[in-house]
Design goal:
five-stranded mixed beta sheet, four-stranded antiparallel beta sheet, 207 residues, mainly beta
Length: 207
């Protein structure tokens, strides 16, 4: 599962394992048995059965890692056997690119190569270690060395990168305030989706 909104379904079974479709009154509660210290489970934590099925809406956990959930009767009834489940919570969808120039201790100068360290993060600030997409680097009104077309370069990022990538050998030809833009290119582009982040830098005159 991921850290984003989730729906979890549970079916009510009798002692012989048959689905009790006639039950539309039993309420179940989901709770966090263990997880990261201070982490919380939010969303629809109590839900009523509908024809033998209980749906928990928008369950969210605010960090990553393994957690154990318990599901039991909301009223503590001993007639329903409690259930526990061990779940690995993965980062949510990519939401931003954290961009840091390197070398970090040097000013950017026109005509001098530098690099960018890019970390893909979700809406909660966790690294999207399984990010698998193509990034487009753009620098308006500048020339980027190694471009596919004038003004941009594309970088393929796979899960083997563990959510971060270094983009080297970038050269800006114009001094002054500049904006470096990173945008992802999904397999099926949609103008209403996608991630885009920028870094504003000051480029000094060349050596």
């Amino acid at each position: 599962t991921t850290m984003q909104d989730n729906q979890k379904y549970f079916c009510l079974l009798d002692a012989d394992g048959n689905w009790v479709r006639s039950d539309s009154s039993t309420e179940l509660r989901v709770a966090l048995l263990d997880g990261a210290p201070g982490a919380a489970l939010t969303g629809t934590l109590v839900a009523r059965a509908d024809e033998g099925t209980v749906l928990f809406n928008n369950i969210m956990y605010d960090t990553t890692g393994f957690i154990t959930l318990s599901i039991e009767a909301a009223d503590g009834s001993s007639g329903i056997q409690p259930l526990s489940a061990r779940i690995l919570v993965q980062p949510a969808d990519a939401a931003l690119f954290e961009i840091t120039p390197f070398p970090a201790d040097l000013p950017l100068r026109a005509g001098v190569p530098f690099g960018l360290h890019v970390v893909v993060k979700d809406q909660f600030g966790f690294v999207k270690t399984d990010y698998d997409d193509t990034l487009r680097l753009t620098t308006p009104q500048n020339v980027v060395r190694g471009v596919l077309e004038d003004g941009f370069r594309e970088i393929v990022v796979t899960p083997e990168f563990n959510g971060s990538v270094d983009i080297s050998d970038i050269v800006l030809k114009k001094a002054g305030e500049q904006r470096i833009q990173l945008t992802d290119l999904p397999a099926e582009p949609d103008p209403d989706t996608g991630v885009s982040s920028h870094l504003d830098v000051f480029v000094y005159s060349g050596p």
